[in-house]
## 1
Amino acid sequence: MAYREKVSIASDGKRDGADYEAIAESRVPNYSAAIVKGSMEQTGTPLLSAEDITVRIGTRVLLQNVTFSIGPGEFCGLIGENGAGKTTLLRSLIGLQHSPHGRVRVCGLPPAKARDWVGYVPQKINFAPDLPLRVFDLVLLGCDGHRLGPRWFSRRLREQAHKAICAVGAEGFAYQRIGELSGGQQQRAVIAHAMARQPRLLLLDEPLANLDFRSASELAQLLGHLSRVHGISVLVTAHDINPLLSLLDRIVYLAKGRAASGSIEEVVQEETLSRLYGYPVAVIKHGGKLLVLPDVGPREGEDGCYVVPDARSAEGV
Amino acid sequence: MLVWLAHILHFSFFHSGPVRTALLVGGCAAVVCAVIGVFTILRGHAFAGHALGDVSSAGGSASFFLGISPLAGFLGIAAIAAMSLEFLGVRRVRDQDVATGIVLGAGLGLSALFLYFDITTTSTTGAAVTVMFGSMFALSPSLIWPSIIVAILGLGTVSVLYRPLLLSVADPELAATRGISNRWVGMLHLLALAGAVALAALSVGSVLASALLIGPAAAALRVSRRPCVAISWAIILGLVAVWGGIWLAYESYYWFSGNAWPVSFFVVVIIFAMYLLGAPCQQLLRRRVRVAEPLPEGTER
Amino acid sequence: MFASFMINTWIAATIIAVTAGILGFFVVLRRSAFAAHALPIGAFPGAAAAQLLGIQPLWGLLAFVAVGVALLQQLQRLGRRDVAAGLVLVTLMASGALLLSMTKAYGPGVFALLFGEVLGVSSADLLPVTIISAVVMVGVICLYRPLLLQSAFPALAVARGIRAGTTDLLFLILLGLVTAMALPVVGTLLVFSLLVVPAATAQTLSSHPTRAFVLSVVLAVGLMWSAIAFSFWTDWPIGFFVGAVGATLFSSARIFRFVRSRWRSTTAVAPSGPLNPAVFTRPT
């Protein structure tokens, strides 16, 4: 059982991995949202809880009374239009945002003390091409980058790094300079970096942006795999949620500084999404899969619908 | 072998006091600059490092008319300049170029004033040349121990900060996520940089200090994929450049019938050659990477 | 202060300040302050070489500037820009150290070339200054829009057929010309300060390109004049005053911007209006 092995990897070390195993046991590969919710109720307290988060810059309110929680092993999407405060919310969840009001608890601890339990993958990652770091070195820094003094050889540390690299499928380029890799490979390397300390919660800011179809869907599958097999809770922001739709358990959405959450069935509806983005959105069901598309096209007599000029002339209007 | 070596190096080379002082002080400067230079280049602070070197010339020239140790002068002004750089926002990529330029302009202005005082009060007309271009064989032996201490302090700072600095260099956001304060790491790095540059300014002159800082590190970065390998290469190249330069300058006394060429010239020429040679080496390295190393056992999925 | 022997100084200094202010706008925009520092310092041994060969200093400077521009352009392709500038600087300067060690009687000249001594400008010096300034100004006027576009939005410039390499080279040539022209008159430090400080201050104060451009020229002239006046009164080197006044200018601009941004942050960000497709439709 490959899955069982992975779970034992995730649960060894100093941490108590009992609830990882409990979640993983209760799961089958073709899991459904109901099972996840069930497991969450079994283990009780949410892994991440945010209450009344308010962030102001000057007099501009970026987030107002945002409240939501994520259970163990849940795969959540965070959506909202540009400038809705997605990145700000993620940053305040890990204690990087200055002066947020409200209460954030990760595994019952404030963010500054729960750094070991959270992995964060920032949005913009630009590694210099001459950076003398291999993927393996970056993952090692994920294990002990905050420690002072030189690093002495440690077998345990190297094994830990190897596990993280294997978990994201980065073995093929583990010994290459990180600056020379492709965007998708760098993204994987940073996820491995975030996974190095075996976190319980993984926060990713627009991981699918600027990736081609194949890399985006592979990355989405990888995140689903991490959540399912390793029992890690994942919160991921995305503009294009299509690659994620079949994997998400729940969607948290932000609009005008406020947040609400719901299941896929509740949120992925034309009305809700159109209201959220302030723009007509179509939801299409194709072969049992949901697809979210911006509703463009020549529709006569309707306001708020833009037509590409060339498209119109092509139709002879 | 030994006879051959002794023949090449002339017996008098190691027996001469000024040469020994130059070898020791220059060696200290080469090692510290190489180590700190790697991080400096990766942070995009090459200009800031050069500016610190130039600005420290104000301290060097002040030491002439104040009668203090030149190392103290270089070090003091470089540290003040490092703090002003931090204050003007050298950490932000957007402001770094301009902030460095302003500090450099002001510092060189100060240097002009002090050199003017040197000329008017102590009538040492050669001060400008000594401070700007260095004169390794004229270093006082009393500078050996202070140089070693400064070198150890600089290396100590970097080795204590090694991992946070590396992560902060790779991506500041990733570092912040791990609870590393980029501000503190950046400030301590700038202070260590000031120390390294002051040592280099003392040995090869303040204008050429950045040669030791940038050259070996830039050449090393082209040929290595791992941080510790890059640092080791930088140290080796830096030592080769400085010691080779000293030896060539010493020998040039015999080549040009008593008219020795300056050490700084040879040091920089060696460094420049190293950087250019880095390109073919980089090609070789690229070729080697394509044949990937086998993974250790037990890592298969 | 305006005695007959100072007239040439005032004229030359003003011409240099205007030219430097104009070009400095692009130096700051393109973030090539290191290149603007490396070229003057790297060119400085040219004067020593010229003295050694017994030719006009201007030719020596032009030769070294040409070498510097060519080296910079090549090294920038190999790696990081700042590393390239640093290596060019130290290489040229090292040859300067060698040349200086050969011409023993050059001590005071070093100081003048490095930090400037504007009190001794002869009428013969004015001619090359005027000609080269005119060339550079015409060059900047011709290249204004491509340079602006390429400096601010490199990707957009490529889409419009402006090649980065060509613009870079032209810009470096202009920079080199200003350097060679101004160096014998005002020294390396002043050239660099005039290229960076006024433009940086102007761009801190205004984000409007034309306004910042004009402000940069005005500030450059003001900086130059005040430095000459202070230097004349106190008899201290002019380089010190350019540095000190420049740092004061820039710091006050920063403080001003900080206060203004605090004051303005109360106003909300303007919402973007709807697109108007009719604007883009082609007439049929």
## 2
Amino acid sequence: MAAISARNLTKTYGDLVAVDGVSLEVDDGEFVGVLGPNGAGKTTLLEMLEGLRRPDGGDVEVFSEPVWPRNARLQTRIGVQLQASSFFERLTAREQIRTFASLYGVGPGPADDWLERVGLTDKADTRVEDLSGGQAQRLSIACALVHDPELVFLDEPTAALDPQARRNLWDLLSSINDSGRTVVLTTHYMDEAEVLCDRVAVMDHGRILQFDTPAALVRGLDAPARITVGPGTLTTEQAAAIPGVTETADSVDGVVLVTRDPAGVVAALAEGHHLDGVKVQTGTLEDVFLSLTGREYRA
Amino acid sequence: MSTRGPFWALSIAILRGFLRDRGAVFFAIIFPLMFLVLFGGLLANQDQSKVDLIQIGSVPLVDDLPDDARGAFDATFEVSEKDDRAAALEEVRKGDADVAIEQRGDRLIAHYTQTDAVKAAVTQGTLRAFVDGANVAATGQEPRFTFEPESVEDDSLTVIQFVTPGLLGWAVAMSAAFGAAATLQGWRQSKLLRRLQLAPVSTRTIVAARVTVTLLIALGQLAIFLGLGAAAFGLTLTGSWWMAIPLVVVGTLCFMALGLLAGALARTTEGAVNLANFLVLPMAFLSGSFFPLDAAPQWIQRLSDLLPLKHLNTGMLDVMVRGEGPSAALVPLAILAGFALVVTALAARLFRWETT
């Protein structure tokens, strides 16, 4: 069953076409990322999927129900994190999540459990204004999940966090669809989409350019892999003799083998016991973006 | 602890947010109370200060006053004596004294300054009265007419009686308008408004919670003002003062609507608060919150009739200290309710969920 089914969504602000004819199907239990640079239309798309914004064209169904206009039957089944600062002013973390819980008819018990699950129990009595960026994001995510929704939308949950705080948040994010919850997340970080998402929709200028698993997106690149073996393991002549190797080069890290059959080459290396310091580099989502848009990815 | 309903959860969250906002509490409670202390405490003893009078040389008309008349004279004038006429006139000219008197034969001559029009009028009137009294006494006849002044107001009517309702009106207007404007803008900017829109909570519940908290704050202001006024400054309320409660309630709704309008028009929280301030502060001056409008030009008084705060102040003044019956509040209540409806409708038309 499709959790989300969007057809031909369009949204225009004046002259700017924010979302341009986007269709999207998200399956139940999937973790989907919408990846794109700032201004790609990710947030506008998400807001139309959530039922916050009325599309100029096209329509959205969530769990086979229309999301627009405001659909009361969906509200308890959907959780939304808009941005870190969507809080009641001057409440503590505990008061904050308990207030949100009350809005959904959920008691303080589950609210406190969620606080613990996102690791904020020792910050329960801290006002939201005094939380760090990462803590505020955790609280914001907990507030979106406190009523145990089947579908969660997270709008750039790791934006404005330093790399360490971002990685700390990944564990939490990857755990929230463990119980079969469907998650849709927007991000402008390639690595994040690659690590967290089952499928990634690459978005630019209001259009979804491709929507597939990270591996399939990279495979679709048709770019050769680069395999490096540690220095002294292999000469360039030996390397060039391995079937499937199209090109070799010396580098400070050792010998680089370029191939379109990384699996076969690695197998051959293993056979000859030449695996010391081996490193395989296939394409990244950055390469995908480059090949799809013809320009460098800039978050 | 059982699960609170959305209405209570929201109300408690908003109330906590207010009570923890030192700035908001200061402007809602402490700041207006400072004015109450200022007006009630400092100006209370300012019964028109005495007129400084210099007596040049001997003035038999004053010197020979019978004891009771002399007492009345001293109640109005602070008398000092000086023989140097030129020096005395110079003092009056410089404003150190208000009037200098001299007697030439049967003529009492007063040299006064116009700088303080009230004192000048008092001086002339009083001196003329004494001269008239002396004239009557000189005829040896019993005076045929007597004069008995009697104030129409209660004896207890002091400055505090007049300033409390006006300042309370200003305080209520200010905190209701600012609270509504700041909440609307703040929630819109943080996208909390959007977030709530996605929760199973009706817009009506959100509005009801915000209104309830604002009314609670306004009634708190009423209690603190009346309590402090009575305890510290001898405020005495008249019979139907309790009609001030519905007046404060409807007045609060009216100014919340004004705050919502400011919040709907402005793009930032600061802008909304500034706009609310821009609407409320001049209105407070023009509505008699700080000083009575009786002496103001006619056109200002007509203009003030268009301002809701004027009607809130008048209504509260009538029922709280002027001793009028409960019905005196009905017209102001109706006018305030009308304002509230019109402004709310306008704010609702201009309302946007987001700043973009």
## 3
Amino acid sequence: MTPNVPVISIKKLTKTYQMGDVAVHALRSVSLDIQAGEFVTVVGPSGSGKSTLMHILGCLDQPTSGQYFLDGKDVSRLSDDEVSTVRNKKIGFVFQGFNLLTRTSALENVELPLLYGPDPVSATERRARAMAALEAVGLGSRYEHHPNQLSGGQQQRVAIARALLNNPSILLADEPTGNLDSRTSVEVMDIFQSLKKERGITIVLITHEPDVAAYGSRIISFRDGVITSDELNTRRRTARGELAELPEPLEESA
Amino acid sequence: MLGTSLKIAQKALKRNKLRTGLAVLGMTIGVAAVLTMFALGTGAQQSVSSDVKSAGTTLIFVRAGNFTRGGEESRIPTGLGSATSLMPDDADAIARISGVKYVSANVKYRTWVEDGGQREYTQVVGADSDYAKQYDWSFVKGRYFRHGAVEDAEPVVVLGSTLRDKLFGDENPVGKQVQIHNQPYKVVGVFETADEDQSDTAVIPYTTAQKTVGTSSIQMITVSAEQAGDATRISQDIRTLLRTRHHLDNQPVQPAGSAALGGLQMPGAGSGGETPDDFTVKTQASEALTKGLNTSVAAFILANMPQMDQTNSQEMAGTLSRAGSTMTALLAAIATISLIVGGIGIMNIMLVSVTERTREIGIRRAIGARQRDVLQQFLVEAVSLSAFGGVFGIVLGFLAAVVITQVLGWPAEISVTAVALAFGIAGLTGVFFGFYPARRASRLSPIDALRYE
């Protein structure tokens, strides 16, 4: 991919929900380019339309009008199968509510993307790769635990391991620290920052907290469905350094 | 991928065991109904065809004498059975008619049978060596006497089980001596039959009986037709043959109508001037119809039922199988309804399951599951439910067939085809009723599914 083709390019994107008689304009003609390797944080109050933007970027929802080019390809022209493959291969999701399958072990949760890939992967390989991903987020010993036996931070790390299993080029995170305490939040941000640095993954992170937004390399402010500001972050926080200064964590409940 | 779907289905179904169990139960009943239906249908068919094949419906009785022998004017039936017009040669001649399977000459008389102090007054039947086959007797002890015993007029006897009970109780009489009319006979077998009258008889070679009675003639010839439908034609052939052999005349016999009735006719019904038969030919159908009736009433009935000769046992078999297929149709309706109800149960459970797991569907879709992956997952789940139902239904169907056979006495036969068909129908029901919920699940928008609370 040539550097001047943005990974994500949206043009005049609008999304309107019909709530009874009232039309709610979640996105009002938003245009945006994101280059490969950027760590973009989108900040705005709730109801500003940032989650809607995120769902459209993740191919989970379709815009009312406007275009979305992913790697230069118009997503609206893809079939459902192709879009599913995009979600499987190219995009990793991290949600505020973790969205892990309940009554399913951490390992099986992480394996999921391999089940739905276009190429079949043997059970042994699935297990090996999922195990490696879990170890990478420091949860190798808890692979058999079910989500309800894990703390919020651990669940989010399982979700991150799952999101990264197919080596996506884009990671979309929707309020990933919304349900986490401050130290765990910093840990999660550390993972994101190192992903960008080590793997060059493009990250789009949505948050309503300016503190969290400050970890990104570019901050986009959102309000009432329009972008109010879009600037490179000159005073970037680094999670690694902050972690070192924070007091040792209390033992996490397993 | 299918293996994974199976795993997921197994897990989902285990999650709510009671619900799964109830959905399976509905299917179980449906499949059991299908299987029972097949079992009864097959059983009924086999019993009908074995009825047709059995001796009972193919017998023709040729008796010496005729009802109207005393003269048509007097209407007095005389001479039947007591005439001496039938000879063993007649039986041999009848045996050569095409379509005749077995022929047995009979000489019967009533006398006492004695074992030690026990004396029973009963019917003694002199018969030929194929007589047991004609009535399809089963031998619980010993065997029927062979042809050699008939040729040599040996003093051997086989006893009906009722008579054996009276004389010997539970003892095995084979090899023992009994006295018949003060003559010693050796018991060679004990037979069982559903006919209570026969069960109370003693059967000896007809040659032996001839010697006892002191006659060279025979009273009756029992003829078995090869095929049930042939009885009418054979009776006619017998009549022609015997009229020739007895030099009655050489005129062509009367139309089939009265020929099949064994010469029974109302005065004036026959063509005048013809010498009457000195024998009577009756098929089992006409015999059954007039059993116990006053002879002239019987003659009247038969003469006024011109269709009688066509009511052969093949037609009776047809009536039976029509009744059988009516029953099968009724059972098929019940089975279909049970299957539909069972299928709706599965559909209902699957719809609930899809609603409950909307979020799971959303998560899977977000991770890259295609519509067809979701469709497959829920279809496999529905088919698993119905397949379990199928397995339990087959077990239940087997039990039902056994119970029906034992308690109600209806024949029920379970074939491999029926089992395979029942299982196949179960699977198809699962696919049919599982498709709508599965399709609904696959058509959910990923974001709506993810947001579902």
## 4
Amino acid sequence: MSQLILILLLGGAVAGWSERLGRQFPPCVALIVLSAASLEFLSSVAPVLDQATGTAQVTWLLEERTEWISRFGIGFHLAMDGMSVLLVALTLLLGCVAVVSSWNEIQHKPGFFQANLLWTLAGTVGVFLAIDLFLFFVFWEVMLVPMYLLIAIWGHEDRARAALKFFIFTQASGLLMLLAILVTAVAYHQQTGEWSFLYTDWLQHPLTGSLATWAFFGFLLAFLVKLPAFPVHSWLPDAHTQAPTAGSVILAGVLLKTGAYGLLRFGVALFPAAAQDYADAMLIVGVAGILYGAVLALGQEDFKRLVAYSSVSHMGFVLLGIFAWNPMAWSGAVLQMVAHGLSTAALFMVAGALQQRLHSRQFSDMGGLWKAMPRMGAVAMFFVIASVGMPGLGNFMAEFMILAGLFKVWPLLCGVAAVALVTGAVYGLWLLQRAFHGPLASTSQNLVDLHARDMTAFAVLALGLLWLGLYPQPFIDLMTPTLNAIAKLAGG
Amino acid sequence: MTSTIFHGLLPLIVLGAAIVIVMLQIAWRRHAGITQGLALLALIMAMVALSPSWALGHVEATPLFVVDGLSRLISLVLLLGALVTLLLTDRWLRWQNLESGEFTLLLLLATLGTLVMVHAQHAASFILGLELLGVSVYTLIAYPQRHGTSVEGGLKYLVLSSASTGMLLFGMALIYAATGALAFVEVGKQLADADTVLTSAATVLVVAGVAFKLSLVPFHMWTPDVYEGAPTPVTGFLATASKVALIAVIIRWFAATGLGDGSVVNTALSSLAIASMVIGNVLALYQDNLKRLLAYSSIAHMGYLLIALVIFGGSSTGDLAVQAAVWYLLAYTVATLAAFAALTLVAGGGNEAPVRQDLAGLLWRRPILGLLFMVALLSLAGVPLTAGFMGKFYLVTVSVTAQAWYLLAALVFGSAVSVFYYLRLIYTLVSKDDAASTVQLEVPWLSGVAVAGLLVGILMLGVLPGGVAALLSRIL
């Protein structure tokens, strides 16, 4: 696992350096690096996929530790279970998609661009694998700085503000998480006399009382900002809109998932009592996000902003799934992370392709594009319908499971949340109609249809969604041990 | 003088002897290369002279001086800081058309002053070191006499710094009146029977004097002006060496006298810390001139650092607090020196008051300097994998252990605000380069060594902090 992260980190440096050989090299190198990382990942995971080991509380497939800062008992400690396998696979897949989407778009310093892309991915993979909370925090921030640079250097017209806002939201909430991590670590130190930041050690000596509630809030806030949940989401529309296509793909597809992952892995499991106390409030926040995102998406004139607000809405479902507090809804939440990653990444790619051709993201400059670019129209339609929740595709499966899980605990709220499926259909179809139907509005000569390279990427994403929608059982089987373990922690 | 004492004080002796030699050399024949070579040799020799004393443990060198883990470590940091400054000024003095002899001599004298302070365990040696440092630094600030701002800065620092030294002296005198002692340990012993009115008045004066030197709010007014007026490499030296040495003395003073352990002192120091964190960071938001910006940022950083001292003075987690303070000093020193090094080399011979726009696209124009400045800013902002993050980590750990929630709240608020101005600068560094504003100067190789050392230092302390953390817990 550490090799995986190392490949991405060093590969980033190599991709950056390869610009000296020629402008076309960095994306190739990045793709090779990602392939190498994927190979390493598959070869290490495949043999152990059905042999979970560990205690009753955790079910690791793989685990490794190197001492790092022994003064504070901090280790470079990584572990992988079914849930992280899924998310790492998603990260690597979307990494490849992002590289493909940036192939022609990035002309300014392509080497440094690919380097930052790979470093962000390295940080994200680290977040999904770290079980030492100090290391987790380090990776949490490592994915932040390159992402900031991606937005700040290669973003669109208002990039300075968007990048700054993104960084400040995440950094400030991250500081509170650091505080929460240290509160827990110091409490552990006072209980046992030893320093440790290890997740499994902390599970043995859970924090109790009001300190647990405060520590939980620290984690919660950082994760809610990242997710993003309703009142703290406002960085997201700006960052997504201003980021270059590959940045939006990674941001929406993978970075948002780290918030949900952290909430499930650390928020719920380390502070079950505190989390359950605030479960109802969080459910309401989730529903508020779903509705708010959907309503604002309806009013957007900017393609990327619309997709960004739809992300707020869909990630609200993840929050619902987590705090519905049963394994069915949790499975749904993890599936939703993957499905939303795939469908939104594709939509951002469509937006990027349009921006490259029209130099605009406004619907007023679009219309009738199906005639000029039928392949792109078909692709957009597939992914819009997926994201709207068409049965047979991944997003439907996930949202259905979340709502079914929620129905057991709070039927009324489940009904309210289900309204969003309708508004989702409205803004989804509205988007399609305005961009691709009607008379051709643009006079641009530049309306070339999608490239074979792009189509391959879209095909992979579409296949993934179909698989998730038609036969999700393998994915559910993969994460069930993890979720059962968390359920045991949360129940007792 | 036994051989233990001799070995313990060897760095001071080496540096003192070297100063005499350099002075004679200048009197005999002016030659920039020889002077700087001698100074370089002197600093390296002093560092080498530190090594035999590591094995000696705690040495009561004289009634005035003590040699222990703290003094050795901080001495090493100060010598390295002086070395970096010397390497940076090698070509810079020529660019500025300045005489190098006196400059180098003054730098060595100031360094000797800081070393004396670090070893001080007696009010006399403390003040002696402080004044040696102070007088040298006034002159260094005003060294380029052509520039009005430099002379203004030097004069301002002279007046205010003398006033604060006066306060400090008066405080020491009152303590002497109350306890009849000047040695830190003696003061601690006599304190129990001393007149509390006198000692509290004395403590207030000492705290105020120190707060002046550390530029804590509300004693910070001089800082931006002096930083702006001083020649850039001197600003870097002023911003690090004088603060590092003073913090070391304060740690020793608190440890020996226990004067940091009263509720009044504690409240006073906490208020200074909170005010510095909040006001320093907020005012930094409004600065366009980079030296002023770094001045406000250093005010804020001294506020963070004070957290460790407040807790050290007032609780049982003393050891960890000292380690936190020392780590933060290390991180602050290396990052601040790096930032000023980058500014020095960017400005070169010309622009002595760079504003944000001068750095537009620096990462593309001069990648090494851009990288150095960016890493320094990230470290000051406390982003992981840099020295600054470990500093914040230590501070937060200590404050959580001591349950100092108000200080923590100010720390979090200050850090969040600081991200804004550091990030804005980083954005400038990476923005598209449209103004080919500054002269293109090669980085001279000696300065290149300093740049590489600083870069490696920041990243080493951030990526592999284990070794130094273990060292700190062993020797402090």
